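Final report, Chapter 2: Outcomes

The project's central promise was a pipeline that accepts a single protein chain and returns its three-dimensional structure in a standardized token representation, suitable for archiving and comparison. That pipeline is now operational. To close this chapter, we reproduce one record exactly as it appears in the project archive, with the input sequence first and the structure output second.
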Amino acid sequence: MNKNPDRNTTIFTLTGILLSSVIIIYAAQGDLWSDEIWSILFAESAKTPWEILSAYRNDSNHILNTFFLYLLGKQQHLLLYRVFAIISGIGSLVLLTKIALQRSRLESVFVLFLAGTSYPLILYFSEARGYAPAIFFGILAFFLIQESHIRYRPVKLGLFWIASILGILAHLTFIIVFVSLVVYIIHHEFSIEGTIYMRARRVVNYLSVPLVFIISFYVFYVRDMAIGGGPTTDRYSELGRGVACLLGLPDNLWYAGLLIMALLLLFITYISYAEKKPIWSFYLSVLIVAPTALILITNPAYFHFRYVIVCFPFYYLMISFILAKAWRANKKAFHYSIVLIISLYIAGQSLRLLPLFQYGRGSYQSIIAEMVNASAANVVTVGSDHDFRNKVVLSFYARFLRSGKTIQYIDQESWSSQPPEWLIVHSLDSSTVPEPWISTAYGRMYRLKKAERFAGNSGFSWFLYHYVNR
């Protein structure tokens, strides 16, 4: 019989977090892609920290991350740009295990298995954007509220206010978690004893400061914010694809993923309601109501599942609760089934993680090196199929050239008078097969010289073409 379960759990947790940290850092290797570079350009263009807020009202300006990049300055090692996301990701895993451990050691083990090998979480925990810190502050705010309900302290309240404010500054999708916490706080406070006045006062005590900040932030920044574009997508199939990533299922099984998640949510809602625990209202809101309301209210033309990535850790908390409850039923059939489920889940996530390790978010420096080394001219002229995205990437990596050559980007509108020597074609579809030859509207022929792929979701493939004088 094991006499030291707490010690074993601690050893497992520390080992699991260490291994997950290694995975996150490994996923953070490789080239930065255009959205990350755009954030760096915001930071480098700002003359003062205040300009990050006042001069760049754009949805690609994730303020907290941009401020970190501003303090960081120009770097030669690309991994440094992702340090804030990496630390946020590791911190999120620590918080998840701590929250689960409040309920049982078994839940902390399951949540670490689920979140620590999750492809979508690892992807955004290793990317220099605002999603990882938004996830961290979302989990932290949830943890602090639960701690306050167990034993109230003014310092916990102050930390909750700070976590909520920083979460909004990290990424606006944090509002999904905050709205759900509002629902949970109201539900909790009005389910315990006290007069209406006392209950309302406690609710106001929790929410007044964050709400004042959010309203002020909306008036000052959000309502005049420019929204970036992207390819038109069906938001519901994209949500389904996100659920498939969440559960480690193939993309074509996203319908099954939605059904599984709906059944799990119904189960935990029933159990929590039967046990008279108001936490069910939080899960129902953060996993269904709030993200659905956000999509319906904002009605975005472009949608990606990363816009609801802040919800994903709470799915894993919910699933770990259900798995632990099934395991404690002490039936061998349940134990075997859970081991099989966890094994299939990790296998499914591994199939998504391996391309991320292999291709990353694209190999842009490799394409640029091929182009520069193969060109006889000191000024290498290049055009592309997307003047904004590709120009941003080229301009950033041009600073790392050591050959003495320079890159001149030629916009498409100038190709008739100044045709480029090289063309870059990009693709957001990781399975795209490039054409061996392409021609421009002006009759110039280009031959495929090099192809570099990306793993999917973040980044794009680059196909390099060279002018052939026929």
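Archive annotation: Residues 5-359 form one domain.
This record, like all others produced under the grant, will remain available to the consortium after the project formally closes.
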